[in-house]
Amino acid sequence: MHLGLVGLGKMGGNMRTRLRNAGHTVTGFDFNPELADVDSLAAMVEALGADGSPKVVWVMVPAGDATRSTIAQLKDLLGEGDLVVDGGNSKYTDDAINAASLAEKGIGFVDCGVSGGVWGLQNGYALMYGGAGCDVAKVMPAFEALKPADTPDGLVHCGEKPGAGHFAKMVHNGIEYAMMQAYAEGWELLDKVDIVDNVPEIFASWRTGTVVRSWLLDLLVDQLRADEHLDGVRGYAEDSGEGRWTVEAAIENAVPMPAISASLFARFVSRQEDDHAMKAIAAMRAGFGGHAIQSMPPAGA
């Protein structure tokens, strides 16, 4: 298929490469001209649909105003039967609004939560999508190319209603918060006592045959082997929104979430002082998503 892709940063750029490796044609636009294939959204849309098929544009820009603005511009450029896919980390409540706006011109909308970080190019992406089946069918070839190979998992239609995919991805990220917090607290305790040695290899041993093995654990081991006490990492971790939204949804639906809410609040603590456990959170975020690490200032600074 021929796909338009808006946003060619860490995720979008790798997705373009994976799609092209699978034989699809991708015309990408980014405000950084060094990354873009064309110089405007209009030029990107013009390049699509030469064979008369519906034009499909996948948006991978930051959640909020940037996504809303991009979709509003695409509404003016696309027409009946075309499709917009929001693959960013938008709040699920935005999706119904965007879908209704695009529907005024007969343009379809699919929301898709994408997980895989900077490793998605090699390993594939887990895709959680929402929207009408007729719209999903238009982008399914791209979904199949992006998902992990040789497995039926990693691709799920979460619901027909707009927002279903982003809601599932939101909960996924809330769980991720709690998992990282548990690893970080365990690391802080092991790192502090003098009864154990070789903490990185203790974590490494848990990667085989234990119930706590995971990709996050693999990433933490890599970081600890490079810097056992994470001395070069400041104990500061951002929250990118999904953790807050998960806790808000839990409150709205009277669902108890003590672990996820505590992990969110722990990140707030990290902004007040150099929290030791947050070094591990920051290191894991850098490992799976390429998020920036704030370095410790030089001694005496």
UniProtKB/TrEMBL annotation:
It holds the Pfam family 6PGD. The keyword Membrane does not apply. PROSITE patterns: 6PGD. GO terms for biological process: D-gluconate metabolic process; pentose-phosphate shunt. Gene3D superfamilies: N-(1-d-carboxylethyl)-l-norvaline Dehydrogenase, domain 2, NAD(P)-binding Rossmann-like Domain. Keywords: Gluconate utilization, Oxidoreductase. The keyword Oxidoreductase applies. Residues 165-292 form the 6-phosphogluconate dehydrogenase C-terminal domain. GO terms for molecular function: NADP binding; phosphogluconate dehydrogenase (decarboxylating) activity. It comes from the Bacteria. Belongs to the 6-phosphogluconate dehydrogenase family. PANTHER family: 6-PHOSPHOGLUCONATE DEHYDROGENASE. This is Decarboxylating 6-phosphogluconate dehydrogenase. It comes from Nocardioides caeni.
